[in-house]
Amino acid sequence: MSTEPRINERIRVPEVRLVGPNGEQVGIVSIHDALKLAQEADLDLVEVAATARPPVCKLMDYGKFKYESAMKAREARKNQAHTIIKEIKLRPKIDPHDYETKKGHVVRFLKAGDKVKVTIMFRGREQSRPELGFRLLQRLAEDVTELGFVESQPKQDGRNMIMVIGPHKKKAEAKAEKAAAKAQRGGEEPSVPEE
Question: Residue ranges of region Disordered (predicted)?
Fold first, then answer.
């Protein structure tokens, strides 16, 4: 059932509790008087609470009300942070330099406020040594403890081992921090060397 007020030209009750355009209580008036007041003020008579006895109606500009509520909903959606899960894939026998590169990606994702799903892919005989993958995931979790925490512990899933790392700070905080850093960089003028 909708809680949105509705315009009701054919209200089948003899009287309504009327609320003025600025929220003031007018009182209980007949439906005809309420409609006449609405026409004089060039406003709409909107039923706000149909279940009340007598029903509550308000004088308002319904088009303006709909527009403002749509703008509030749009603003709320705009400020909403969407959690994104980024994925990094590793192999158990990863080269140290490659590990550092992948760790850098995980750090970047966590700083941005995103969750990271780390997947270790096992092939062939590597499947008989899942402890190698487990140790690699533990090492990665220890390397990024200041930025994130292990949200789901490593678990074997067929040929893969999966672990999820969540960020300590929320996406909105990360965005605000990034914007502040960008504004600070933009506000500083490059220093000119003195001769």
Answer: 169-195
Residue 27 bridge partners (DSSP): 18
Would you say how long the chain is, in residues? 195
pTM exceeds cut of 0.85: no
- Looking only at the bridges linking them, the beta strands covering 85-90 and 56-60 are unpaired
- CB distance 57 to 18 below 8 Å: yes
Indicate the helix (H) or strand (E) that contains 90: strand 85-90
Question: How does DSSP classify residue 8?
Answer: -
pLDDT at residue 117 in the model: 95
Query: Would you state the pLDDT for residue 135?
Result: 92
- Tens digits of per-residue pLDDT, 125-169? 888 888 999 999 999 999 998 988 998 899 998 899 999 999 987
Average pLDDT of the residues in 55-61: 91
Helices (H), the chain: 31-40, 62-78, 96-111, 130-143, 171-187
Could you give the angle at the alpha carbon of 155 between the alpha carbons of 151 and 158, nearest 5°?
140
- Side chain identity at residue 106, one-letter code: V
Whether the CB-CB separation of 70 and 100 falls below 8 Å is answered with no
* Residues 6+ positions from 59 with CB-CB distance below 8 Å: 18, 19, 20, 21, 34, 37, 38, 41, 43, 44, 45, 46
- Of 107, 129, 112, 111, residue with least CA distance to 120: 129
How far apart are alpha carbons 135 and 92 in whole angstroms? Answer: 9
Beta strands 148-157; 115-121: pairing state? unpaired
User: Mean of the pLDDT values across residues 163-176?
Assistant: 82
